[in-house]
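Please, structure for the following, as tokens.
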Amino acid sequence: MSKTGFTTTALNVPYSKNDPHNALQMPLYEAVAFEFDSAEQIQANFKGEYIAHVYSRTSSPTVEYFELKLKALTGSHAVLAVSSGMAAIFDALIAVVKTGENIISGDRLFGHTYALFQDTLAGLGIETRFADLNVASQIEKLIDLKTRVIYFETVTNPQLEIADIEMLAAIAKKHNLLLIADSTMTPPNVFCAGKFGLNIEVISTTKYISGGATSFGGAIIDHGNYDWKLNPNLSKYTEKFGKNAFIAKLRKNIYRNTGGSMTPQTAKFMIQGLDILELRVEKCYQNCIALGAFFESHPKIKRVDYPGLKSDLRFQLSEK
């Protein structure tokens, strides 16, 4: 993680290559395909010996820069930008779980995530076992040899339930499971997922990061703290790519073949959104605290549910 502040870091992430015109803002590279100097260079690229952009469905300079910026701001190992938050969830899970295996998930979820687990993944032969993730015994009794993932939302949408992440990380580590969180509601300027033992984050960048709901997007963040040898679905990639096994499977298989890529136009919005994310989130927080205090003192309101208020039962866990 950078030693500079969040916004300073965001504004000073270097490009992967020097811009030919020394543009201070990453240009919008609206191009489908990219040229090579020779057939030999193309061949080297296909062999993985020469890294360059080929086709924008798989990578582009603008999308790459958004990934680099988010990687710097999260202190993570690798980032993959996708077309939506739902694409991030599906791609991440389908890379590590197969037919006949199962995941354990919190029973409070974003509605479409619940539908994905209950309908789409079930149709592929992947079972989701729902549990109250604040009760350790309830989680552990669901784990068996076919369990691959514990999945949760850091703050549930829309119930605002708070996960005990420290406890979940301990259970996942004990059973060699992957800990995946949807951290959309806790953007990277307020929550350092890797420090809490999360292995993978999935984010709907449509929400806080896009900066005013300008565009749809998603991101998969690998914190580089999981031994991919523990997941049998990545054995082929682990042998070849080691620590990069997960992101390699996504880029070379799942992401490339399903086509849920982020567009360069969207990436441009996301880049700008990251630059002022800290300012916007801080203002959101101040407004919520002010509204919560106002509602608590209003004679016609019986109860206020907001974990940012000290009177809320979830306050201590949210502070933790």
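The chain has two domains: 6-274, 282-319. The first strand starts at residue 78 and ends at 82.
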